[in-house]
Amino acid sequence: MRTWVPWSEVAQKPRGTLDEFHALLRKYPRSSLLRICARLSVFFNYGPDAGTTAKEDVVAYWIPALFPPLLVPRVQNMLEKKRIIFFQAQLRYLAAETIRLAEPHAEDGSVVPNVAIGELLLRAGELLYEHHIKPADELDQLANLISQFLPIYEIDSPTEAFIQFLRFYIFLTINIPRLPAELKTFDVEAEFEKQFGFSLKTYSEFMFFFSMHAMIVRGKKSSDAAMDCGIRLATF
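Above: the chain's sequence. Below: its structure in token form.
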């Protein structure tokens, strides 16, 4: 089992907070942050073959580009020790928090500097999971133990990405609607729209459409194709 590298370990500072992460995101236009997520997803080849981590040669190539020169040797040393530097959930979290962000930076054409992207990704990975509190109840202890394997599963999942989409869709459309009323503690669709500002139905339809687009784009291996991997309005 290989552990991922948190930003606090690289920067040799205390673990960051969500407020600090949001403050960093507010320095850049939302469109620039989302383009980073799209392009790096292609460059790191996430998804089509259930690849949830970037290959080591790809990571070695991108470390000097995505971190300040002072930190590059430190990150390279961690890679040599087989630590995980980049993994898919970092981009998922970065994209989600970018969408949720209140009062984002104005769309003024500015972009995120390349050397700042590594920090954003490592901070995102660090914020994915809270420190566990040791529970007293036996069943809570078991659940706590299982939860510690979730990051490992995310990093090296054997599951094909489209099967994950299908599983989520089945949960939303079949499993949750069949639950007894007393077990439905909140409205999933209302909570989703409250968090993200658009409906769960719209999200599901877009993800289906995006998946089809991704299959086509990922068949093109050139750098030019990766740089132009966004979905154009004409596609809709």
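The radius of gyration is 19 Å.
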